[in-house]
Amino acid sequence: MIDLGFSPALIMIVGALLVPALPQFLRRPLCVLLPAATLVLVWLLPAGPSVQLSFLGLDLVPVDADRLGRLFATIFALMATVGAVFAWQQPSRMESGAALGYAGGAIGITLAGDLVTLFVFWELMAVASTMVVWAGGPQARAAGLRYLAIHLLGGVILMAGVAGELAATGQVAFTAMQADSLPHWLILIGVLVNAGAPPLSAWLPDAYPEGSWSGTVFLSAFTTKTAVFVLLRGFPGEEVLIWVGLYMVFYGLVYAFLETDLRRILAYAIVNQVGFMIVAIGIGTELALNGAAAHAFVHIVYKGLLMMTAGAVLYRTGLRNIADLGGLFRAMPFTAGCAVIGGLTTMAFPLTSGFVAKSMITAAAEEDHMTLVWLLLEVAAAGAVLHAGLKYPWFTFFQKDSGLRPREAPLSMTLAMAAFAGLCIGIGLFPGPLYAMLPAATDFSPYSWSKVMTQLQLVLFAALAFFLLLDQMRPGRTLSLDWDWFYRRLGDALGKEFSSRTVTGAKNVERDLGVQLARLLERLYRHHGPDGILARTHTTGSMVMWVAVLLTAFLLLGYLGVLR
Amino acid sequence: MAKSRTTRARPKDRGQKARAAATRTATPRPLAQPRTLRRLWGVLAGALLLVVLANFAITPKGHFGIDGSFAFFAWFGFLSCLALVILGKVIGVFVRRDESYYATGLDLGDDDAAPGVPAPDPDAADDGAGRAP
Fold this sequence. Notes:
The complex is a heterodimer of chains A (564) and B (133). Chain A has 564 residues and is mainly α. Chain A has helices at residues 9-18, 24-44, 67-86, 93-111, 115-134, 141-169, 182-195, 203-207, 215-234, 240-258, 262-283, 286-317, 333-346, 353-367, 371-383, 391-397, 411-429, 432-437, 449-468, 485-528, 540-559; strands at residues 48-55, 58-65, 478-480. In chain A, strand 1 and strand 2 (58-65) form a beta hairpin. Chain A starts with 8 loop residues before the first helix and ends in a 5-residue tail after the last helix. With 133 residues, chain B is mainly alpha-helical. Chain B has four helices and one strand. Chain B has helices at residues 2-9, 12-26, 34-57, 72-95; one strand at residues 96-98. Chain B is flat and about 60 Å long. Chains A and B meet through helix 6, helix 10, helix 12, helix 15 and helix 19 of A and helix 1, helix 2, helix 3, helix 4 and strand 1 of B.
């Protein structure tokens, strides 16, 4: 146990500022070593609040390590380390630095003991992750801007909630809450925006696939899972989360079914799987919360693995649509094998990490006798073959031959994929160490004959349905309308209409004013101009005549006695 | 060295698509020989049969009644996927649009935009939302 005096996340955040300025031979190893060092420090931190400071009259606790926070900090640091190995060949300096800062922000959140610290790291993540999206190239600019706008909105809502909490209670401690007051609701909504909850879920499949081949690997890991972490600690057992989560589960399934872009399929699969975690948080029993935490842990690994395989395909072929790919297992057998392992893990196939985590969540719904929730979760578990489970690996690496013969992924990518594929299988075979890290002590055992058999029945028959309906699984190249239609299409059109109408209106007002002004000037000129009635010069004779007329009138009035 | 490989891979993005399409139509090769494919189907069928037959040996205790029925997870998994595909198809009817949907602005009928409104920027390819600073 050591007392650092600062959050271990700061190592990565300071590193993120330095890394872009360093030459390549320093930059690459630092990107790997800094997260690895952070991982070690996270485990050396003493439990409980270890850093406290007073700022603006608030008592802040930037570092407060508990079991849950340590679990998430561990997987975030691991992801950043392995992700940096995968991104070894990435030439973009901006992305290297931004990814490091992004992961640092995520780790900062897992160790935050108060809501203000949480908010600071939250915003840091929003900015850093946007830079990771932008590093994807010019085509990522618009999507990155939309991504940033949504996250800044979520951040503002969160900030309003934190401020309201401070005003109401004078406290900013980050502890379990309930959605029973306006500030708590605002905090919940702000966090759910980052989780990809409806109606603002479109940012995720919109922006993630626009990242570079390595950037998307980082993007897939941190934002949604920090939101899961905050919900786990802040809102365990909040019932509304069950329904929000179920919506996400089925939204992800249906939209992934309609999609053909490799990484967009995987992005929808993220929403689907995060939905599982959020349902579990909503159920809120000890088993369910353990299940959500375990699932978040293994999900980062297998989704990272799948995104890496998609990144390797993009890196080698430049292609990103399943319509252009197929049969790549001949040329990239190792990548194909890793994609299959990632797919099996997504389907929660026995002996993979997906099985040992997901079975906790379904068992929790079962124990609580939530019939409808349990049934829907089982439907969704079968539906996992429709996206990352079978659809992605099958159409990319098998099916018909596209004739593409790229080289196998470079060594750095291969190493990173091997590490994560090994973790997927390793945790599946030996779930003990993962279970030991979970927030609550558990004696849950995933491997019973009955559980293995029922899961195999579910997955294998779902696979049968997939192969029987193979022709239906690959829709044409289309995009799917989502809630983002309201800001991408309607908002855009309304904005243009507003600007067109206000410009026309302004022109009309300007023209009318101009006419009025011209008329006024003309009238003034007529009366006061050189030839105007009031400016005309009069002859002396007429002046004398008028004086004579006035005097005569005066005389007459005098005689008549009027003036007396 | 590695860096140059990366920079070589990126500019290919667009052109390679066309070339890949050409190769594909020229040499259409199935994933595997029909014999291998039949064998794979055989393996899947065997596995399916095995997990259903296993139900005789292991009877999972049901929590809700329905899940105690014979080979519940087998038919439930199959029907779930079927239902999800149908759901996807139905929703697809309403939400699927052409890929270039967001690239073109929404036409509200009044096209004679007043002078002074900037023309849509062709560079901001997929929408008019703006650009990175």
